[in-house]
Amino acid sequence: MYFCTEKNETIIKMVLSETENAALRQRFAPEGSTLWRQQQRMLEMMVWLDDVCRRHRIPYWLGSGTLLGAVRHGGFIPWDDDVDIEFRREDYPRLLQVLSQETAGTDYALQTHDTDPGYFFTYAKLRDRRSRLQEQTGYDRIFTYQGIYLDLFVLEPMTKPLHWLSNRTFGIIYKVLRNPEYNTQQLIRKTDSIYRVNMRFVFPLLRLLSRLFSPRLLTYSPGIPFESQRDPAELFPLSTVVFEGHRFSAPHNPEAYLRRMFGNWQRLPDIDKISTHTARLEFT
Question: Which has the closest alpha carbon to 146: 109, 194, 183, 102?
Answer without folding.
Answer: 109
